[in-house]
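Retry 2 of 3 after timeout on previous attempt. Resubmitting structure tokens to design endpoint.
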């Protein structure tokens, strides 16, 4: 799925990160992570490159919900 203003970085995906998007200008990154290895479900994190700051967008038990929340968040920002 394509998100306007974001590009998917499949080369960064692997391990616990199974979806990664970067803004076209490189100022933000969005990660969907699988945390089931520690019984925590899935999480979406936004990283602000300039501020070197991480924000939790959502934590959920569902992989599909995590991806859906990430896409919705990216479309709004």
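Retry 2 succeeded. Sequence:
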């Amino acid at each position: 799925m394509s998100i306007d203003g974001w590009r998917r970085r499949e080369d960064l995906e692997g391990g616990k990160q199974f979806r990664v998007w970067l803004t076209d200008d490189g100022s933000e990154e969005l990660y969907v992570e699988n945390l089931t290895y520690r019984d925590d479900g899935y999480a979406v994190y936004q990283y602000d490159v300039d501020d070197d700051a991480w924000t939790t967008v959502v934590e959920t038990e569902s992989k599909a919900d995590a991806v859906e929340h990430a896409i919705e968040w990216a479309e709004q920002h």
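Attempt log closed. The helical segments are 63-76.
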